[in-house]
Amino acid sequence: MKYKKITKEDIISENIKNKEIYLTGIVMDIDGVLIDVNKSYNEAIRKTVHFITSKLKKSYARNLVNDEIILRFRQSGGFNNDMDTSYAISLALLSLNTSDKINPKKFLLKIAENSNEKGIRSVEKFLKCYLNSDYSNKLANGFNGNIDKIKKYLDYPGPVGKSIVSTIFDEFFYGQKLFKSRYGFETNYYHGKPLIENEKIIITNKTIKYLSKKFDGRICMVSGRSKIAARFSLNNKFNLLNGHKSIFLEDEKRKYGKPNPYGLIKVINRMTTANALLYCGDSFEDLIMARAAEKEINLKKKPNRKINILFCGVYGLSANHRELIKKFKENNAEIIIKNINNLPYILNKVDEKEC
Question: Taking Cα atoms as reference points, which of 177, 178, 175 lies closest to residue 190?
């Protein structure tokens, strides 16, 4: 697919000008699109991994997890859920022996590179093969090299209050007040400032007003976070973005998490008159979800009622802009922008057919 620059930061597919598509709705991800989560969710991953590995005296894991490692897992297509990322990294680090000559950071990057849309299952499979190979002398102290024993200790994906991964992650992220509001019981390990308070809203009222007017109110969100977290972080913008019609996958069954198209399809069904939509996301999982939703909906619709879902990749909050742009291009994203607030200008250009 060929792309053309519209601004210094934003590009669109040249195929758009050949498509007689008039967008009638827009759906957006929250994390990395509407909100900067680098000091909330990313930090929750780091703190969760540090807590778990420190508890077992794995000093080599201290301050190891950075945005690059987190990004690599997200780019695999199976790690939109940050608890999954926390679990995968913890599992990997606990499988290493302190006497190993393996560089822990390179080891994590290798695991991320061998991950795929199957998420934590792909990591567990890779580690089992790795530990059963010629590297069997590099087994983890205390677990006798048994990945299943480490999995049992982490107890993931067990619920909050049972799994150490789920519990620690949400205690750090929500803090005492929101944690109790969400789960009905007190935090057990963390009593400090909630990481969710570190989040910054990116989208402006001006952008929301433009999008709402352009799409006649057909504007919604599909996010991996919970509704309580979305409402807290978006504040008064929650209602402006039709939060009551949006889908928050943390509140749904785990099997419906991205890249499963369930959430996007559910929102589209609520936007009954929309037949050509733009989905804005910041990850490979978002793109997979958009393509899968379009395919599934069209398989069930009559031939003359086909739906089009265009994908807009937002890269500005990524740890590696170049890598994410490359990923979006390789998978034929129709629009690639740095900031969600650049979208009105891009859509005006698309409407004018100047691209």
Answer: 175
Going by C-alpha positions, the residue among 62, 35, 59, 30 that lies closest to residue 46 is 62
| Cis peptide bond N-terminal to 259, omega within 30 | yes
Residues 277 and 310: beta-carbon distance below 8 Å: yes
Domains delineated in the chain:
3-37+199-352 (3.40.50.1000), 41-196 (no CATH)
Q: Strand pairing partners for 281?
A: 313
Enumerate residues 6+ apart whose C-beta is below 8 A from 10: 335, 336, 337, 338, 342, 345, 346
Largest CA distance in the chain: 64
- Residue-wise pLDDT tens digits, 152-210: 999 999 999 999 999 999 999 999 999 999 999 999 999 999 999 999 999 999 999 99
> Which tokens in the block code for residue 50?
């540090």
> What is the three-class DSSP state of 311?
strand
The pTM of the full predicted model, rounded to 2 decimals, is 0.89
* Residue listed under structure tokens 């398989």: 299
Rounded distance between C-alpha atoms, residue 251 and residue 245, angstroms:
14
pLDDT tens per residue, range 3-46? 999 999 999 998 776 565 688 999 999 999 999 999 999 999 99
Helix (H) or strand (E) holding 26: strand 25-28
Which three-class secondary structure state does DSSP give residue 355?
coil
| DSSP helix/strand/coil, 121 | helix
CA–CA dist 342, 355 (Å, integer): 15
Does 102 score more than 90 pLDDT? no
Helix H or strand E segment including 314: strand 308-314
Residue 277 DSSP SS3? strand
* Residue 305 burial (10 A CB sphere; 0-12, 13-18, 19+): exposed
Closest by CA position to 258, among listed 116, 130, 140, 81: 81
Contacts of 262 (CB under 8 A, 6+ apart): 252, 256
The size of the chain, in residues, is 355
